[in-house]
Design a protein that fits this description.
This protein has an 8-stranded parallel barrel with strand order 3-4-5-6-7-8-11-14, surrounded by 6 helices. Strands 1-2 form a two-stranded antiparallel ribbon. Helix content is about 35%, strand content about 20%. With about 270 residues, the protein is α/β, with parallel strands linked by helices. It has a single domain (about 5-270), classed as Alpha-Beta Barrel (TIM Barrel), CATH 3.20.20.70. α3 runs parallel beside α4 and α8 (about 215-225) packs parallel to α9. The longest helix has 17 residues, at about 30-45. The chain has helices spanning about 30-45, 70-85, 95-105, 120-130, 145-155, 180-185, 195-200, 215-225, 255-270, and strands spanning about 5, 10, 20-25, 50-55, 90-95, 110, 135, 160-165, 170, 175, 190-195, 200, 210, 230-235, 250. A hairpin with a 2-residue loop joins β1 and β2 (about 10).
Length: about 270
């Protein structure tokens, strides 16, 4: 089975799962500090490989008034500071080809947002960095459609590709997760399960997304029972005050219990593979 190297970490469907966790978007310094330090503490406690995630710009928000983040220049500078201070790998998303080279000087993984997963120029620019790429499967795509995207990456000479499941559009303002679809995705790539975005109800609050954050553990256990490469999770000290996608986030104080349960499940599933 295919394994992707991210620094000293190995990411593969047969390997112990990697946790990609953090904030939806960079917020104030105190919130960032609380989140990254607790994530590091708990992943060390449970011996879970860890990658910090946070967007520096959210270019696809519902409303013109939605918080987008500090932007590429300031945001990447902050991420670089975190990388130096905490010695953790970083992942963030790019939204246009011009960002790819700039981001590659800071990030360990480049992420392609779901809405942009078929943008050939963006894929080409990301591949040119030679970094591993985490491509979020568009909410509008079938699992088999991702083969075309993987072929693009191969054409652009980057085979270090992870596919991220984040739910599929189901009517208006709703997403569902196709578990058999994730099994299909595993045939060609390490699969990362974005459990918090899969609980999103896009546009459910009119000018922003609603979500079902109370079901994070239930959905995570369902997905991780398939034997996946990693789990993508957004946490926040107070989701009601999060600047983006708070209704989907796991409260930071619940991360300890959450990781305990998910780690035990992953160990059990992969013991019998």
């Amino acid at each position: 089975m295919k394994t992707i190297k991210v620094g000293n970490l190995e990411v593969g469907n047969e390997k112990p799962f990697v946790l990609i966790a953090g904030l939806n978007v960079l917020e104030d310094d105190e919130t960032i500090k609380d989140v990254i330090e607790e994530c590091i503490r708990l992943t060390k406690k449970y011996d879970v490989p860890y990658i910090f995630k946070a967007s520096y710009d959210k270019a696809n928000r519902s409303s013109i008034d939605s918080y987008r983040g500090p932007g590429a220049e300031k945001g990447l500078k902050k991420l670089l500071e975190l990388k130096k201070d905490y010695k953790v790998p970083l992942i963030s998303d790019i939204h246009n080809p011009e960002e790819a080279e700039l981001a590659s000087n800071v990030l360990d993984i480049i992420q392609i947002p779901a809405f942009l997963s078929r943008q050939t120029d963006l894929i080409e620019a990301a591949c040119a960095t030679s970094l591993p790429i985490n491509i979020k499967k568009g909410q509008f795509l079938a699992p088999s459609d991702m083969n075309n995207i993987l072929n693009k990456c191969s054409h652009f000479q980057n085979e270090n590709i992870m596919i991220c499941e984040r739910g599929t559009s189901f009517g208006y303002n709703n997403l569902v997760v196709d578990m058999l679809g994730m099994v299909e995705l595993k045939n060609n790539s390490p699969v990362i399960f974005d459990v918090t975005h899969s609980l999103q109800k896009p546009g459910g609050l009119g000018d922003k997304a609603d979500g079902r954050g109370s079901s994070v553990l239930d959905l995570a256990r369902a997905g991780m029972s398939l034997g996946l490469a990693g789990l993508f999770l957004e946490v926040h000290p107070d989701p009601t005050k999060a600047l983006c996608d708070g209704p989907c986030a796991l409260p930071l104080q619940k991360l300890d219990q959450f990781l305990n349960k998910v780690k035990n499940l992953d160990d059990l599933i992969k013991e019998f593979k």
